[in-house]
Amino acid sequence: MQDWNPALYLQFEAERTRPAAELVARINHPGANTFTDLGCGPGNSTALLRNLAPNATITGLDNSPAMLAKASAALPDCRFEEADIASWQPAVKQDVIFANASLQWIASHKQVFPHLAAQLAGGGVLAVQMPDNWQEPTHTLMRQVADELGISRSSREALLTAQEYYDLLAESGCTVDIWRTTYFHVMPAPTASSMTGAC
Question: Where do the Methyltransferase domain residues begin and end (predicted)?
Fold first, then answer.
């Protein structure tokens, strides 16, 4: 897989950051001292966590060296590590585990979500936002064109249902607050570039 392009990704920074900002606003853990941003990208979501908790220890994880370099330059007071979210195991249980637009790329949610919940300290918060755009026309057509051209597609899977996520988290001992939001972005012109970020 080719590395992500931070400059291309950040062309739509406001649109990409809005769901993260709204998720951060729901975190209610005033005593939180340890935060991990799973799939931190260029650090736009990590910066929101830094603003929420200026004195906390914040670690950003990503599998893209280019994104990590951009994040490290922007936020020198945070730690950044190249890591695989699916197998991540922190040395210390975390007060807040935050994942904005990253877990949809990870398979086996029925194993991953309980694993992440188990990495929380007592009273910890698992805050997750995932684009549920698998059946949107953009993504349906991209898969169709890839199939017609014989291009191998990403192994991304459709998300589970809200009920399945609720059950997974409740069975892991979490108090669950789950909701669905639709974002409509007014773009200056018809373009596919807002759907890209890699290469």
Answer: 37-124
